[in-house]
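Anyone else keep sequences and structure tokens together like this?

Example one:
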Amino acid sequence: MKALFRSAAACLVAMVVTLTVPMSAGARGPENFSDIAEKLLPSVVNISTTQMVDRKKADEEAGEAPLEEWFRDYFDKRRGDDEGGRKPAKRRQTSLGSGFIIDKSGYIVTNNHVIENADKISVILHDDTVLDAKLIGRDTKVDVALLKVEPKAELKPLAWGNSDQARVGEWVIAIGNPFGLGGSVSAGIISARARDINAGQYDDFLQTDAAINRGNSGGPLLNLEGQVIGINTAIYSVTGGNSGVGFAASAHLVRPILEDLRKFGRTRRGWLGVKIQTVNPEIAESLGLDRGRGALVSQADPAGPAAKAGVQQSDVIITYDGKSVDKMRDLPRLVAATAVDKTVDVVVWRRGKQMTFKMKVGELKDDGTPVASIEQKKAPVQITRTELKALGIGVAEISDKSRERYDIPNDIHGLVVVDVDDDADAASKGLKRGDVIDEIQQASVTTPAEAQALIDTAKKAGRKSVLLRVVSGDNVRFVGVKIEG
């Protein structure tokens, strides 16, 4: 019993010792942020913009109630704000945001949405000095803008940090102009990295619980070294106020863009000339990949760098310029950040083997391709149907009748889908009537017999799914469909 007591006592002492081991200062965080805030505040600015807007449209967008509109009209008349009792067609609208200095000569960064459509942009420094700003360039895809002011005194720029080294749980500081209250400082931690919030194809956001509210947009997110690791861009909120979830575009993403804006007045993004899609487990299995990874090439522009180097549709890009492509969305960011005309190595997975291609990266251009077209209904046309039971779909050979019925261009060949079993995997993957299947397991098909033979071959090889190349209007994609039965 005494031995047992001594053992228990020893454990208790050990527990006390363990629990009272002091934490490092870094783990606890700073005792306060006063020194660093005092140092950084002069480098953060308020952005004020004005623009003339249609009065009625502005009121509608603001959600003004009829009674509120009546009272405002009444007092406008009392003040003489209208002429002859009529409300001016346009009125001046002012908005506020944040920004920060990146060069002592007067270059300032903010969000594009802060200054978008502005007739006049003003920068208000920490000492309340107001300076007119000139727009040097903007990037709508990443929501950044570069401004230039002519300072009357030397400005204090912020230094850039390495956002790739930022860790989840690390302390960060947000400075900005929330609700028009300039020079506001908030602190928190990085909640997550590399967030995709569906703002665009280049999404790379740091998520933070540091308080970010309306008006913080364009301000810096800083580490405890006082270095900028992100630009505060968005909040997730039900009420419009802070809910502990804010997003900052990573410094790694925006720095090359700002350099381009400063040199060329526009962003010069890399371009490979391919359309890509996600490699899900079914597609990976059908291609013999170990897991769902990489970016599947659904189309390759014949004039693009990738096609000229030898990359083909149905190739899976798994490495780009020495960097692994774990997810499809990784590739657009990697390519966009590549210098135009740089030669890179691209590794693809093709028919069970890895192949390496060298290609010179081109420059992305906006082609102005229409994103939608008007669909016209066609009169019913009788089409001969063949069932592919293993896939749960009915198909037909493409004929003049089916081309007329489903608006299939003359240069598209394969099998048209005429019906889909609602309970089949094909339906859950989005296959629908009018889609054209022109490849199965990377082999061309034009008859139901060819399709059935390829499905049977895949089953004999132990495949649980087959890869279909599907054409839907102007869209081409690969779909991995499970084999039933």
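And example two:
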Amino acid sequence: MDARAIIAKVRDKHTPTQEELQWFANGLADRSVSDAQAGAFAMAVLLNGLGDEGRVNLTLAMRDSGDVLEWDLPGPVLDKHSTGGVGDCVSLLFAPALAACGVFVPMISGRGLGHTGGTLDKMEAIPGVCAQISEDQLHEVTAKVGCAIVGATAQLAPADRRLYAIRDVTSTVESIDLITASILSKKLASTRGGLILDVKAGSGAFMKSTDDARRLATALVTTANGAGSPTAALISDMDEPLAPVMGNALEVAVCMEVLAGNRAAAPRLYDLTVALGGKLLSLAGVEAEDEGEAAVAKAIDSGQAMERFSRLVAELGGPPDMEADWHTHLPKAPVIRDVVAPESGHLASVNGEALGLTVVGLGGGRRVETDKIDPSVGITEFAPLGTKFARGDRICQVHARNDAAAQEAEAAILAAIALGDKPESRPLIREVIG
């Protein structure tokens, strides 16, 4: 086969065959397809698309460019993926809660991207935790604990790793077909028993509108189901942070509060975790949806999820007493500063992306790949939309490395919010797809 002929097919609005896409994906993985050819392919897909069948075939081809994990466990093997948002630490609740419900969740997660936090960065905010483990270790941890939250190995979907880097420098990141194949090739390489997708929409999401989120969710659900994995998506609201905290160790701390039985510490986070878990248990045929939600809620409220998460932390090299002494183990920033309302009014709107970038500016994320993250910094006690303030009331707290960084973050937070009339309430879950 010839890469040029495959590129020409997409350029001319014809769909390559499954065999051609598999050959191209293998060429991405072993570098027999050049960077120029990969970039031309990505641009042709962005401009012309692949159609439903072509998108499924590209996803499977990228999955099959590397290892595809096989599981021999006494229960369903399921997974979740979020498209990214601000204060989104669902995975830290979701994986152990589902494990406590009798299923297995070998969750392959990523690092922070742009203004959104990364699950691996949150896990590694816990001292000693190493989230990059081998496939053999992943099998072992999942079997022992019921879940894992780790990074992808180099052997999982290597075609995606290559194409992702090329998309980043060729202005082809926005392609729905390529986004879909990128997300699902990694997920389907680790599990095919069932997948729930949390597709964010709003100011703190990559997809700002419900329409754009619906397009992506529909493509993901259609493709995953076409590839043989029962899948559904919730389109969830990201016009305000999901949890009232942002920053790696701070998000771990609020998850520990919820796992300890204090759902009021992050009610939106708790509710979305329960909804996602209930839907996934229903998809996999484990429980009816309402019964699944009740099971997930019980797993969290009873402390069973906390026990699973603490065991996972220990298996990944973290403290063996995380459940009992997490306050002591998590790093803390030296400067904590109140951000107060400059005038009276309700919290009318929030620019979630700006808040995420504020955390990055504090050192809680990366501007370039080589940046070292400070896990202690971020924002806590961020007020919900609609909260009424008098002048001088606290809106949130900034956790920073020094006074200058705290002052800069305070200014950025005040620029990211609007005070005014009370906004209309909006549902946490905007739509269900599939």
